[in-house]
Write a structure and sequence with these properties.
The complex is a heterodimer.
Chain A lengths: L2 E4 L2 E4 L3 E2 L15 E4 H12 L5 E5 L17 E6 L6 H12 L5 E6 L6 H6 L4 E2 L7 H4 L26
Parallel strand pairs in A: 3-4, 4-5, 5-6, 6-7, 7-8
Antiparallel strand pairs in A: 1-2, 1-8
Chain B lengths: L5 H22 L5 H9 L3 E3 L4 E5 L5 E3 H14 L3 E4 L5 E3 L7 H10 L16 E2 L14 H11 L14 E4 L13 E7 L5 E7 L11 E8 L3 H15 L10 H8 L1 H15 L8 H9 L14 H9 L1 H10 E3 L5 E6 L10 E3 H14 L3 E4 L5 E7 L3 H11 L13 E2 L14 H10 L3 H7 L4 E4 L13 E8 L2 E8 L11 E2 L4 E2 L3 H15 L6 H8 L2 H11 L1
Parallel strand pairs in B: 6-7, 7-8, 16-17, 17-18
Antiparallel strand pairs in B: 1-2, 2-5, 3-14, 4-5, 4-13, 8-9, 9-10, 11-12, 12-15, 14-15, 18-19, 19-20, 19-21
Helix pairs in contact in B: 1-2, 1-4, 3-12, 6-8, 7-8, 10-11, 14-16, 16-17, 16-18
The chains are: A alpha/beta, B alpha+beta.
Bound molecules: protoporphyrin IX containing FE and iron/sulfur cluster.
């Protein structure tokens, strides 16, 4: 089972991430699955009728606006980093949290590396599915890379200038 | 000058620790070359032609004598004894060893310096007018705003992986010495009729492959909203800027594709959600930051110093220097002085460790221990008593900073080019030198008057060639180095991009091409016209005719 960093700990992950071209065929009824956006948009009725947990994942060129009205359906929204240098999903995560008040899990998937975790957590990610060849226990350290930050973000809506003693 | 408190200091120290571990993991093989790349770039570390290059931030060009001494120490201990001041008001070391960089960063942190965001696809060091706070034509001091932007942009978590580099410049004077028209965001600090401070906001300027002058998207943004508005611009760019082609990834391409009007609407729509939120600036914060930039303890003088004026009369060399390197100051009896880093045969912007020590001493002795780096790659002592100018001039002569050429043809902006830069198509430093040698008659240079000559070794335009009154661009033709000349560029108010003169020239031709271009100007100018004025009036044709006629 894949190990996941979740809320600052390494845990076992029971969610099943479906490929981008997944279809409804043969979907197990009771597994917890994270479906690609296209599948959700096309088959939301069928997906809602399942018993298992439901999450959705967006690629970096897909907009969170497209699921804004459906967010209550998902326990997990996963945002994909096709390459670590593609920063679009930092903005998407912030929109999920700050604008749409999404309370479920926001998970980083794809090319997720240790040195991005600090910024990701500031943007509202609370779960990190590191690239498979990476050590999650070591990566935990990076969540504490900085002891303070200047600007307002999801994890700390007050900028430092409103907090300076 | 802004002085770190415990929070600022902690953040740079955390950074040193973080980068030390990242370097360790890279050297241990735990991080691949491609994974380490963005990490080292976010720390100003390039891999260049001969060695890594470390770019150190000088936020909005302000630096203290103590910091300059630290640069001298680093140059001596970790480099070949010199540094390079760049057109982004930063400083670069050309020869550090990768293994030493964490130690260099630790040295820098001791004097409140760092290399954060000096490269990579993030918000870069904000730049401004080198005469900020002292210029006679200043309306609003831009420095507090630059510092507020520095803090907001430092490790901004949402914008650490933008489609491309991102540069912000701020100007608060009548003249634009910060080139705000050719930055991703240009901010003009202004006062409205009620005397309130706000910003005229330009976006989408930039040089490089597609040079564009920025467009205004907001006429007056009240200062309280600066950071939320910047967040909105950056968010629109981060989400919708192209990422498929790095040459089309700059915000200028997005603004052009959408049109400035539509881009402005998108920003306004985004901003509507965050406006008046907790990131809205407070008077208390503005006062705190502005307090760091209050005027030094000027002595009261009335009018100009008589002895200074008399010495100018008496000594031609001093007068030449005073004409070009001494600038009007808003306080009577004071002047701002540019130390020229452009003597002939020195790479523009280079200084060695001994010179750095001397510069630090001059700052302590003559200018309250502070200096500024200009985007023309010179240094400025901003607060010199007129009565000290003569002594300062003599000291500058001794150390090689007294070349009286500021703003003249030989005050060339020049990128490192093929001598150092891995991306270059052609050398640029030897071209600058050849032109400096050709125009070695000071009287003639002064007669030619204000003229920006800018040279880049490739189309990335680090030498700002597009906005030089005369621009030179190194091009590669079948493995040989050639130079394309443009005329009519301007980085100041009403910024414009130069027009290409015609087919390119070999390196040997460059001095004579330059001579011909200047000749056409001299023959056609009216008494009050500067080069750019004459060009605007007579157009390209006479220049073209002269330069290419002789070549046939
Ligand atoms: C030696 C290593 C250097 C490398 C590898 C380098 C690389 C680049 C690249 C790739 C660009 C193009 C950016 C774009 O169009 O998006 C660029 C632009 C630029 N660089 Fe450099 N550069 C170097 C040194 C310098 C130096 C020494 C200076 C200052 C003298 C400088 C200042 C600039 C400026 C002002 C631009 C124009 C940015 C714009 O389009 O707005 N660079 N550089
Ligand atoms: S303009 Fe080209 S050659 Fe010059 S420093 Fe920039 S990238 Fe290098």
């Amino acid at each position: 089972m894949q190990r996941l960093i979740k809320n600052g700990e390494v845990v076992n992950d029971s969610w099943h991430l479906l490929d981008k071209d997944a279809t409804l065929d043969g979907l197990p009824n009771s597994d917890s699955i994270i479906v690609p956006l296209a599948l959700w948009l096309e088959h939301s009725h069928a997906l809602k009728a399942r018993d298992g947990g439901l999450g959705v994942w967006l690629d970096s060129d897909e907009e969170v606006e497209s699921i804004a009205d459906d967010l209550s359906q998902f326990q997990v929204v996963a945002l994909n980093f096709p390459v670590f240098s593609d920063g679009r999903n930092y903005s998407n995560a912030r929109l999920l949290r700050d604008r749409y008040q999404y309370q479920g899990e926001v998970r980083a998937i794809g090319d997720v590396l240790r040195d991005q975790l600090f910024f990701m957590q500031r943007c509202g990610f609370d779960a990190f599915d590191l690239r498979a060849d990476r050590n999650a226990d070591e990566a935990l350290e990076s969540l504490k890379d900085f002891s303070n930050t200047y600007q307002a973000a999801t994890d700390q809506p007050l900028p430092l200038f409103r907090r300076r003693a | 000058m802004y002085i770190y408190d415990e929070y600022d200091q902690q953040i740079v120290e955390d950074r040193v620790k973080q980068f030390r571990d990242q370097t360790r993991r890279f050297l241990a093989g735990e991080l691949s070359e491609s994974e380490f790349l963005p990490l080292r770039l976010q720390n100003g570390l390039y891999v260049q032609r001969y060695a890594p290059m470390l770019r150190v931030a000088i936020p909005y060009g302000l630096i203290s004598a103590r910091q300059v001494r630290k640069l001298a120490l680093i140059a001596r201990q970790y480099d070949k004894g010199y540094v390079h001041f760049s057109t982004r008001q930063n400083v670069q070391f050309n020869w550090p060893a990768l293994e030493d960089v964490p130690d260099i960063l630790a040295h820098l942190a001791e004097v409140q310096m760092h290399a954060i965001q000096t490269s990579g696809n993030c918000i870069r060091n904000t730049t401004t007018d080198q005469f900020a706070g002292v210029a006679a034509d200043e309306l609003v001091d831009p420095r507090p705003w630059c510092e507020i932007i520095r803090q907001w942009s430092t490790f901004h978590p949402e914008f650490a992986f933008l489609p491309r580099k991102f540069k912000i410049a701020v100007n608060g004077a009548v003249a634009d010495r910060a080139a705000i028209g050719v930055h991703d965001i240009g901010l003009n600090v202004v006062r409205n009729e009620a005397g309130e401070i706000g910003f005229r906001v330009l976006v989408g300027g930039g040089l490089g492959r597609t040079p564009i002058v920025g467009s205004q998207i907001c006429e007056f943004l009240p200062w309280q909203h600066l950071l939320t508005y910047l967040d909105a611009i950056l968010r629109v760019y981060n989400r919708y800027g192209r990422r498929d082609n790095k040459y089309k990834a700059r915000i200028k391409i997005l603004v052009k594709a959408l049109t400035p009007e539509v881009f402005a609407e998108k920003v306004a729509a985004e901003w509507a959600h965050t406006k008046d939120g907790p990131a809205t600036l407070t008077q208390q914060e503005l006062d705190r930051v502005a307090g760091h930039f209050s005027a030094p303890a000027y002595q009261p003088f009335s009018g100009d110093d008589a002895d200074y004026l008399a010495k100018r009369e008496a000594e031609k060399g001093f007068n030449n220097w005073a004409m070009r390197n001494v600038h009007a100051h808003k306080v009577p009896g004071y002047a701002a002085v540019t130390l020229s880093l452009k003597p002939t045969a020195v790479a523009p912007g280079d200084a060695d460790d001994k010179q750095l020590e001397a510069i630090a001493d001059l700052a302590d002795q003559f200018s309250f221990g502070e200096l500024r780096v200009t985007h023309q790659q010179n240094l400025v002592l901003a607060d010199v008593r007129q009565s000290d100018l003569y002594a300062l001039w003599q000291a500058c002569r001794k150390h090689g900073f007294a070349t009286p050429n500021i703003g003249l043809l030989t005050d060339i902006i020049c990128c490192p080019g093929g001598d150092f830069c891995a991306l270059a198509n052609a050398k640029s430093i030897p071209i600058a030198e050849a032109i400096q040698r050709t125009f070695d008659d000071l009287d003639y240079l002064h007669d030619i008057g204000d003229l920006d000559l800018n040279i880049s070794g490739c189309m990335n335009a680090c030498g700002h060639h597009h906005v030089g009154h005369i621009g030179v661009l190194g091009v590669d033709k079948k493995g040989q180095e050639f130079y394309q000349v443009s005329i009519g560029g301007n980085s100041g108010r009403d910024a414009s991009i130069g027009q290409i003169l015609g087919p390119s020239f070999s390196a040997e031709d460059m001095p004579s091409v330059m001579t011909k271009v200047i000749d056409v100007y001299i023959e056609n100018r009216t008494p009050e016209e500067q080069f750019l004025d004459t060009f605007k009036r007579i157009g390209m044709a006479p220049f073209k005719e002269r330069v290419y006629a002789a070549a046939n």
